[in-house]
Amino acid sequence: MAVKDNILTKGIQSSAASPILKNFISPIDSTAVMKLRNAGAIIVGSTNMDEFGMGSFGLNALGGPVKNPIDEEYVAGGSSSGSAVVVKSYQALGSLGTDTGGSVNFPAHCCGLFSMKPSFGRVSRFGQILYSSSNETTGPFGHSVHDIHAFFGK
Question: Does 15 participate in catalysis according to the annotation?
Answer without folding.
Answer: no
